[in-house]
Each structure stands twice: as C-alpha cells, then as structure tokens.
Design a protein that fits this description.
single chain; RNI-like protein
Length: 452
C-alpha cells in the first residue's frame, strides 16, 4: 500500500484499468493521500524476483486472481525504478521493458539516477526493443564493481552479446564477474574480460559451454583470486595447457557438477594449485586427490561434496592431504563410508565439518567419532542435540584426554533441553569446549568464503 501511495497519476490510472471495481475497493485506494516520503527513493537493493514474490503474496491476500498479477506487477516495477535514486545493487530482467506500462518509461532519467550503483545483475532475453537497447547502452557508462549476466534463452544471437560485451569493456574497476547460461559465443565474453586485466578479482561460470572458447584470455588476468566452474562443459585437456602460464595467484577454486573429461579438473588443479588456500570439488577422483596433495602446498581448507557417484576407493588417498580444514557434504548412504573416511583422515586435519543429508545421521556420526583420530580442534556436525549422542561425544573427548578439542558444533543448541541433555552439555563445557550452532560454524570449517 505504501508503494501504491507513491504512484503518480498515470500509474494509478494504469492500476485501475487492470483491476475490477471490487478489486480496487479491496485495495481501498485513497488518491488524495500522500505519504510523508517517497519511499522508493531510499531503496538501495532492487531485486525484481523478490518484488514479484512480494506482489504475489499481496495479491493473494486481497483475493486478486493470479492472472492479474502479470498485468499489474510491471506497474510496480516501473514506479519503483522511476523514483529510485540511491540504488547500490540492481537485479533486473530486460523482459520488463516489453510490458505495456514501460512504453513511456524515461530510461535516461532512470540511469542518470544510478550514481551509487556498484552491482548490476542482468537477466537478458534474446529479443530487443528500443527501451532495452537504450538501457544497456547507458549501463556501459556506469562504473561497476560487480556484474552478473544471465542469458535466459538457449538461442543467443550475436546482437544479444554486443551490448553486454560493451558494458564489460567499458568498466575500469570491475572486481567480480559472473555469467550464467552462456551456451554459445562465450569466447566473446572472455575476450571482453581482457579489458579488466588489472581489476578483476572474482570470476564465476555457471551452466556455460566452453566449446570453441579459448582459455588464452586467462593469461591477461593479473589479479584474479577466485575462480569457479559450476555445471559447465566443453573444456578439453589441450585447452588447459595455456593455464601453465597464467600470471594470477588464485586463493579459491571451485568445481561443481561439470561435464568434461575426468582429467580436466586434476589438470587445472595442477596448474592453478600452488597458491590455493581454499578448494571446492565434487566427487574427486584418485588423480584429483593426488594432485591436491602434490600441487596445493598452501591449501588451508578443502571442501568436498560426495554423492552416490563417489567411488569410495578414493578414500585411502585422503591420507596424503596436507590441508588443515576438511568440510564434507555427503549424500551417499554407504554403511562403510564413514568408517573408511574416519580411518583415512590424516592427523594434520584439525578442523572437520560434516553436513550429512540423511535421516539416519546418528549411526554414521557414531561410527565416525569411534574411529577417527583424536587430534581434532573443531568438530562440526549437522546433528540435533541428543542425549545418547552427547554421551558418545563425551567418550570421544575422554579418549582424546581432552587435549585437542576446543569447539563442538551441533544443531538446535537453543532448543528445549531436558535435565539430562543440560547436564551432558554442561559436562562438555566443563572440559573447556565451546559449543556453537552448526551453521554458524560451517564457514569457519572450510566453506568457500564470501569471495564466491
């Protein structure tokens, strides 16, 4: 209602034209009332998906049919964007510019108000109109620190790439870049990134195809620290050879659900691993673990995601890992997995976090604690406080002679506790061990940092 009170006369008329009289009565629109402030003027974070979700719930509460939402939500977007003068983070779909309510939208006034903008997320369509083209052209004149481009269509034509590439090229302090759903012409994007060779720190590829794309552009990125590949394909072993000569020193590297030759990931680890402090990998192979052990001498934190495709024969090679922190997310209901895992974790790993996605966590964590080494400083488990399990933890502490463990992470520590649970938790605290919530501790135990 506050946003509606900030509508101008044209927007109020558009809203009335889209609704039935009884729906207008439900809104109880008072055209004479004006709020104390034009509240959209103070908005700093504009996210079109969040706004759509709030509008959906609003219409649901007023019994406005769902089909009407598609008619009225562009009016809200247009009004908010028209008034916004302090946006720092803009997440927008160019599809908005195809709606009737935007036909007279003053793009120049809007973009001239974006003087504080430092983060832009673009959801691009494969068609264009004058408003969209003017918007994209104007965005190339704004200096950003973060740019995210999402191609929402599988069919991408060269014209669709020209404006986003221009935006990339015209930046002079771009630090973070993410691209999603780029199935063709990725090489154009990579070539544009060369213009950011001294500023770009973070680079992320999601659901993108590297067929016919050269990694040579990586050799012109001098300050890159964070690199991530998720659901990507098309990188060949020969393409990776250029990575021998990259000038940057990575701190974090991430691989998730990529469909390329099994040897590509270990080869990239070999060429990029010497400076790595954090690494995220899913279902590592024996060669990947060997290369992590051999080439990642500065690794502090290793995060591994394990699912049903993981080959447990890899576990004995964990013994050679030199990292201090191991963070595991496990979706594999293998009875022997936790015993084999605990028996092969080297003593140099002093902090471990295990996020196990199963209802039967108790027995798996029990197996782990009864078989693992006793030199952990931090143990973090996504398990709800349970009297029997707390007894197992106390047994582990006593086996450790209370010499190493300093922090224990569990779930729902603030929940209702009976006398027995309270007594057991106090016994753990009395041994000098700090208790923390699992999720609060998880990032300290090897979660890929805010870099990506």
């Amino acid at each position: 209602m506050t946003l509606i009170f900030c509508f101008n006369k044209e927007e109020i008329l558009q809203l009335k034209n889209k609704l039935e009289q009884n729906q207008i009565n439900n809104i109880n629109l008072d055209e004479e009332y004006k709020p104390l402030f034009e509240y959209p003027e103070y908005l700093e974070d504009y996210n079109y998906i969040t706004i759509d979700h709030v509008l959906y719930k609003y219409c649901l509460g007023l019994l406005i049919p769902h089909k009407k939402l598609y008619d009225i939500k562009p009016i809200f977007h247009q009004s908010i964007l028209r008034q916004s003068k302090n946006i720092k983070k803009l997440d927008i779909s160019t599809f908005l510019f195809y709606r009737e309510s935007f036909k007279n939208f003053n793009v120049q006034n809007f973009t001239s108000n974006l003087t504080r903008l430092n983060s832009l997320s673009l959801n691009l369509n494969d068609t264009s109109n004058n408003i969209e083209q003017e918007f994209l052209s104007n965005m190339a004149t704004i200096n950003l620190q973060e740019l995210i481009i999402n191609f929402s269509s599988h069919v991408i034509v060269m014209a669709t790439f020209e404006k986003p590439c221009k935006i990339i090229q015209e930046q002079n302090k771009l630090k973070k870049f993410k691209i999603l759903n780029c199935y063709s012409l990725l090489n154009n994007i990579l070539l544009s990134l060369e213009f950011q060779k001294n500023s770009l720190v973070q680079l992320e590829f999601i659901n993108s195809n590297f067929d016919n794309a050269s990694l040579k552009s990586f050799n012109n990125l001098y300050n890159l620290k964070y690199l991530s590949f998720t659901t990507c394909k098309g990188i060949l072993l020969d393409q990776c050879e250029i990575l021998k000569f990259v000038p940057f020193k990575l701190k974090e590297l991430s691989f998730l659900r990529n469909s390329w030759d099994a040897n590509v990931t270990p080869l990239m680890i070999k060429y990029l691993g010497s400076s790595l402090q954090r690494l995220l990998i899913k279902n590592p192979t024996i060669l990947s673990i060997e290369h992590i052990s051999m080439y990642c001498s500065n690794l502090i934190s290793l995060k591994i995601r394990i699912d049903i495709q993981f080959n447990s024969s890899v576990l004995p090679f964990f013994r050679n890992l030199r990292t201090k922190i191991l963070n595991l997310s496990i979706i594999k209901y293998d009875t022997e997995l936790f015993i084999n895992l605990s028996n092969n974790i080297p003593i140099n790993i002093s902090k471990i976090s295990i996020n196990y996605y199963s209802a039967n966590k108790y027995f798996r964590f029990k197996e782990f604690l009864e078989n693992c080494h006793n030199k952990f400083e931090i143990i973090n488990l996504n398990y709800i406080v349970n009297s029997n399990f707390l007894k197992i933890i106390l047994n582990y502490i006593e086996r450790s002679n209370n010499s190493s463990l300093k922090i224990l992470g569990l779930k729902d520590l603030d929940g209702r506790l009976n006398d027995e649970k309270s007594m057991l938790l106090n016994s753990i605290k009395a041994k000098g061990i700090k208790l923390m919530e699992f999720h609060n501790l998880n990032n300290d135990c090897g979660g890929i940092s805010g870099g990506i």
